[in-house]
TrEMBL record:
Keywords: Carbohydrate metabolism, Cytoplasm, Isomerase, Magnesium, Metal-binding, Xylose metabolism. The gene is xylA. It is found in: Cytoplasm. Its cofactor is Mg(2+). It is an enzyme of class 5 (isomerase). This is Xylose isomerase. Mg(2+) 2 binds at E266, H269, D305, D307. Its EC number is 5.3.1.5. The lineage of its organism: Bacteria, Pseudomonadati, Pseudomonadota, Alphaproteobacteria, Hyphomicrobiales. Binds 2 magnesium ions per subunit. It comes from Devosia honganensis. The active site is at H99, D102.
Amino acid sequence: MTDFFKGLSQVKYEGPDSTNPLAYRHYNKDEMVAGKRMEDHIRPAIAYWHSFAAEGGDPFGGRTFDRPWYDKGMEGARLKADVAFEFFDLLDVPFFCFHDVDIAPEGATLAESNRNVREIGEIIARKMETGRTKLLWGTANLFSNRRFMAGAATNPDPEVFAYAAGQVKNVLELTHELGGENYVLWGGREGYETLLNTRIGQESDQMARFLTLVIEHAKKIGFTGQILIEPKPQEPTKHQYDYDVATVYGFLQRYGLEKEVKCNIEVGHAFLAGHSFEHELAVASSLGMLGSVDANRNDLQSGWDTDQFPNNPGEMALAFYFILKQGGLGKGGFNFDAKVRRQSLDPADLLHGHIGGLDTLARGLKGAAAMIADGEFDRLLAERYAGWDTGLGRDILAGKLSLADIAARVESDAINPQPRSGRQEYLENLVNRFV
C-alpha cells in the first residue's frame, strides 16, 4: 500500500440525505433500474491519463500538481500503478481506461517504449487478478510526441505512419491480453492546420489503410472487442477528419468499414462540434454506431476542451434515454474523461470529482428509466410521426409512389396540410419532471 490516499476509506452509498462529501448519494451500484443493476447500465471507468498522468497544466500554464511518481521513469510508473489501483478500490468501480504513455514512460526507441508498456502491463495484469476493476478499453497516444505534429496515420511521412502502427500493435495486443472490451482510436492530430500543404484525399486514404490494418490485426490475434473511433472537430488540430459521428460514418462507409467500427462519443467533443451530447448519441444509435461514451463537460464560457466532471442530471437523462432505447451500451461504458481543476491539489479532490460524476450519471439513468416507463414521451413522439405508419406516408416510404403519383394524390384527395405544434416547451417540462 502507498500513502497517497492515506486516511481516506472506500466510498460507500449513503443515500440522498447524506452530507458526507466522500459518499455516494445517488450512485448505488446494486440498485435495480429497468431490470438491471445500476453499475451494469453505467459501466463506469476511470481515465488513467486525467487521474494519474495529468499535471494540472492548461494552455497558459504548466504543472501545478505535485505527484510522487512524476519524473521518476519506470520506478514512478510502478508507483503510479499502485496508486491507480488503490484509487479504483476506493471508488469501487468496475473499469479503467489507459493510453500507453499514461502507464509507462517513452523510451529512446519504439522497441524501448513498447518494452516499458509491457513491463507495466504485467504489473497491471497481476493487480487485476486480485481486484475487481477490469479494462474497458486501451489506446495508443498518437498525438503528444512531436513526431506526430503533422498527424500519425495521416502524416506525409510514411515512417511516422509506420511508427504509429508499431505503437498501436503493441497496445492492441496488450488490451487483448488484459481482457479489454474495446480499443479506441482518437485522431487528435489526424487533420490539417492549413490546406496550403495538405492533400485531403491522400490523407483520407492513409487513415483508411491504417484503420483497416488495425481491424485485420485485431481479428488475427482473436480480439473480439469493439474497435471505436472517438469523434472530435478541432483542437489540437485546426480541422480534424473525425469531426462528428455523421462525418465518421461517411468516412467508414466510403471505405466499406461501417460494419467493423463504432463510435466512442464524448460530451465535450460533441459541444465543440456545435452539437448537444444527446444529438451525437441519437445519430450514432440511429446508424448502429453507438459503442461507448466519455463522460465530461466543457465550460460554456470557454472555447476549448476543459474536460470537467459531469454535473447536469438533465443532460444525462436525455443521454441515457437514447442508450436505454437501443438496449444499453453492450461492451461499452461511461469513461470519466474528466480531470480536476489545476487548483484542486489534494488527493481527496480526485474522489470528489468522480463521486459527483457518478451521482450525476445515476440521477440521469433513473430519470431516463422513469421517463420510458411513464410512456408519455414516447407516445407523443409516436403521435407526431403516426402519419408515416399508414396510408400515404407508408406508401411513400415503401417506394410504391413516384413523384408524379404523389402529386396526383395531393390533387385528387384535395390534401391541404396545416402546421401542427411541435410542443417543445411541454416536452422540455416533461423531461424535467423525471430528473
